Every structure is written in structure tokens, then in C-alpha cells.
Amino acid sequence: xxxxxxxxxxxxxxxxxxxxxxxEKAKKYGVWNPRDFDFSQDAKDFAAFSPEEKEFFxxxxxxxxxxEEAVTLDLLPLIMAIAKEGRLEExxxxxxxxxxxxxxxxxxxxxxxxxxxxxxxxxxHLIVNSYKTIFxxxxxxxxxxxxxxxxxxxxxxxxxxxxxxxxxxLAETGYYLLNLIxxxxxxxxxxxxxxxxxxxxxxxxxxxxxxLISRLVAENGDEVWQAVQDQMNMLLPLAMNVVKEGYEMxxxxxxxxxxxxxxxxxxxxxxKRYQRIEKARxxxxxxxxxxxxxxx
Length: 296
Ligand code: MN
Ligand code: FE2
Description:
single chain; binds manganese (II) ion; about 300 residues; 11 helices; about 0% strand; Ribonucleotide Reductase, subunit A; mainly alpha; binds fe (ii) ion
């Protein structure tokens, strides 16, 4: 039952709020078409890779493709929880979030279609076990829990898993690795263009997640903070293992990639996010909002 509308009762939309600023950005930067990327040079570059290089390159691509599918399928319960609380500005932004994840699925699919010349390929052997634990079990569980119990603690667990670990740590590290292989070595110009767009979208998603978790901590205090810490601590070793298991499959790592650099990058991403959220423990909602706005 609803008896008023913020857009007609004199309240209006809070245009200065973080979600509305992200919404403005999404309308400006998130409207691109995966069809517009030209992957023809990428296909030639891929064809010239050695068999080992092909497998090594396809691993992050396979994990990205599956990951984009997972986050597209799993986001709805969070949008539902936010909508049920009447947070119109946040829900408006979340509509762009889900559409962007769908475009990411679309983009990786088009890349693979061109690069693998239309062949359907079973990538399952490239997807490592700790990845499966996160994406097949933990992520859908924490998101689905919001359907029956959208409590602040469950929202915090969901956002830590989705925004901090899957997007903020694993996806960011994946872009970094792809960048090392593609951009720095002058391969795959279509993929470089695609990941530039992806990174922009994901930075809005992660910014929202940091804001959401900080808001939940500022509004609800220690109970939520404890849940955030527990979820982070449970997921960090798994996330680090996704990176590790990936290169453990190789005696000699192709493209001269140094695993220690990838590890350090992943840990740094995690720590940066953790420190941002930790600050919210001693902040008011106004301080959370102004800090979040300063970063977008
Ligand atoms: Mn995505
Ligand atoms: Fe995302």
C-alpha cells in the first residue's frame, strides 16, 4: 500500500545525492552498443597466438563471460529490496546497473563469437574451483536471501559479495590482467576498447556498492559492520585463490606475466575498498553522502 509519491508530494528527486549523480553518469557514459566494437583484428591476433597463449588468454575471458552472466542473473533481489524501501533514486540508478551487466554479457559473447569464428566452445575446464565456490554458490545464495529477508545485514552481505569482491576485486584484477596482455603488448584493439567501457561501468557499480554498504553501516551500526567484516574475511582468501589457481595451471606463464604483480594488485583493490567502508563506522549519513559524492 502506498499513499504518496515523492515526485508529486513536494519532496522531488534528490538530484545531488550519490545515486542520482551515478544515474546521470550512466545516461552519459553507459549508453554504448557492444555491436559497435570491431573485433576483426582481435580475431587475427588470437589466431596467431600459440596454443598455450590461447588457453591462457581464454581463461580470464571465460571467467569474465560467466561472471557477467552470473551478476546479470543475480542482481534482481537487491533491486527489489531497494525498491521496497522506497529508495527511488537508488532504484533509478540500479536500472542502469542491470542493463549494463546485460550489455557486458552481450559484449563478451560477441567477442568470443568473432574470435572463435562462431564455434561454441566448452570453457568449463578453464574455470577454477574457488571461482565456482564464489559464483555458483555464495553469490546466488546471498542475493537470493534478500527475497525472503532483505534486512540491512543481508543487504550488506550481498553488496560485499557482489560489489566489493566480485566487481571491486575480481573484475578489477581481470581488467588489469587483460590490459597487461592486450594493451601493453599491442594486441586485441577491440577488446581494449571494450574493457575501457566495461571499467567505466564497473566503477559506477562499485561506487554504488561502497555507498550502499557505508549507508548501511552508518544507519545500523555494529551489527552491520560485523557482518561486513565477516563476509569480507570469508571471501578474501577465496578471491585471492581465484587469481592463484588461474596461474597455477601453468609451468611457464605465457606472455611473461608475473603472478606476484597480479596478486599484489588484487590485494590492493580489496584493501582500498575495505578502508573506505571502515570509515563509515564513525560517520553520519551526511558525511557518508558527501564523501561518496567527492569520489564520483
Ligand atoms: Mn559487468
Ligand atoms: Fe557491474
